């Protein structure tokens, strides 16, 4: 039996090294106790005041004793300067911030602990540092005492019961702004010189917390919440309870920022704050239910923004950013069920994907539409109250919603979370009979048999109906009236695609914003899956040549850009030119987003357009922020001026601007840029957090792709060692492998052979995904070569 109550931790820092004394209040009747410990030097262990035997074996600290009350461990650790996981140093301006990132299994790199989400405990932390440094943790500072020798000790209040992966420690020269207008106190902390750009996120946080407190009917539990900018950060953000960490571009924005940047900041802040209840207050029992943490936070972030910023149409953003990307990934044979069975903790990293986030959020939206918004909310409130400060499983949430609605939600949810993939519903109309037929949708037509319980929504002649399609086929009789129009998957609440026969019937319907978006995405994927020909696809695209729907416009622009990367041919310039005219004078945020996307796409596709746009680079700092990236890319395309772009990249102190310069650098069409970019990667000129984006973007550039892919193949062992070290694990390498899909567009056999020789178990799925996409794009390229 193991019962853990509290960790009392004292850390004495000398530079990046620290000495630790840890007292864990626990009861264990076993004569052998195993804790998690990695890269820590264990000096002594006492059980109930007596020295006991111990050994370190692999990632375990094994203590040979039962414990009645207290386990004391003395140890030494160091903040890593090579990795961005565990406790590490995030460099900036020649200095370093000590920070932590523990999800999923990296608290063991900080302290010896029971690094399991179900083994919750309270934490009381004291940290000794050089005077002048500031320290942040989950709870407010209780006291600061002078300890002599030019040092002070920060003592923090004790946390509520929580999992080890939510613990946080930050040490550095923080600047802060504080909102104490009401409980909780909201604090934005940044490296020097940046904190004023945090006022937008502070305002968002206050409004989001107010929204969640009303929605969940449970107050935020801690006295304060820190929003902390970290100079180099593996993820976008991390929901440490009361001390949320963000990469800079996910936290900082001001009036000079683009619409995209402000929306991204608001969405990420809302996502991490949703976790303060769903994930922190109630925590998964094991990582099998990771998806529930992430999908619910994703779902709630868009819901809160819908209330706070209605002008952004956040529900449309959820479909555009989450649902469509999840549908794409779930179209592969390499996909996995939402609920994954994690045996080895090192498998967890592969679960942080579009299935866990986007598909999960989309399924929650589908269930909410099925049971009703208020019934869904009441079920969530019941769930949180039943399991607060404890651990739960996915089925516990379905039970709570079922209890409120009187419907067996678990039966439907089980179908969607335990089965991989999703269906395409074929809709045909003949003599007043609507025939529905479902089949699992795969891009390579693997003929995988799966029947889903589909809560179908449809409109016939403008009248709304629902239908549970729980078998392969069904018919709906409308012979008493002429069917003039039909659409299925109303407002795209369902996680499935729709294939119409005849297609004209859907265009006779009045399509709303989300239905237009879904239709163009469906028929792009039907093109990829070889279910429609090129003429049919462009027939759908041309229906929307004058659309004022920002989401549809951006989706088609993205499709046309992919066609360019795959075929090296410029398709759809008439569409893009017309859309630029539609959105050029847009004053609303969605219109600006569309205009930004169209201009960037045109700059890449049309060198004459890029030449005209590049003249604005001379006035870059005064250019509209929404087209700055397009201007920088245009300059890169037409001048190949690496030195100027690199100088600007090095000079800018704001990541939003640095990333624009990075996008421009990897757009240079001179082959010499390949060696220069990889030199920037290996000498750490580029932040570790940006390595994956940089290499993938370079490979997409068709003018230097052969050289970039050749470099990767010739230096794969070096890249592998660098990326796995920097990211502290294999998941970063998986992203690099996915980027090599574009290498296979030009040399499919060679790249598939190369990928098949990578024998690295931890990235087996990314390798198989890449091989599958190479086959998909090769077929698409062949299809267009015949035009």
Automatic annotation (TrEMBL):
Q: Which PANTHER family match?
A: PROTEASE M1 ZINC METALLOPROTEASE, PUROMYCIN-SENSITIVE AMINOPEPTIDASE-RELATED
Site feature Transition state stabilizer, where? 357
The keyword Chaperone belongs to this UniProt entry's keyword annotation = no
Q: What class of enzyme is it?
A: hydrolase
Q: Does the keyword Protease apply?
A: yes
Q: Start and end of every Aminopeptidase N-like N-terminal domain?
A: 6-166
What EC designation does it have? 3.4.11.-
Q: Which GO terms describe its molecular function?
A: metalloaminopeptidase activity; peptide binding; zinc ion binding
Going by the UniProt record, its keywords in alphabetical order are: Aminopeptidase, Hydrolase, Metal-binding, Metalloprotease, Protease, Zinc
Q: Under what name is this protein listed?
A: Aminopeptidase
Q: Which one GO biological process term can you cite for this protein?
A: peptide catabolic process
**Entry GO CC:** cytoplasm; extracellular space; membrane
- Cofactor note, please? Binds 1 zinc ion per subunit.
Return the InterPro entries for the record. Aminopeptidase_N-like_N (IPR045357), Aminopeptidase_N-like_N_sf (IPR042097), ERAP1-like_C_dom (IPR024571), M1_APN-typ (IPR034016), Peptidase_M1 (IPR001930), Peptidase_M1_aminopeptidases (IPR050344), Peptidase_M1_dom (IPR014782), Peptidase_M4/M1_CTD_sf (IPR027268)
Positions bound to Zn(2+): 271, 275, 294
Q: Where is the active site?
A: 272
Q: Which residues form the ERAP1-like C-terminal domain?
A: 486-775
Show the coiled coil region(s): none
Q: Which cofactor does it need?
A: Zn(2+)
> Which family is this protein grouped under?
Belongs to the peptidase M1 family.
Peptidase M1 membrane alanine aminopeptidase domain: residues covered: 200-416
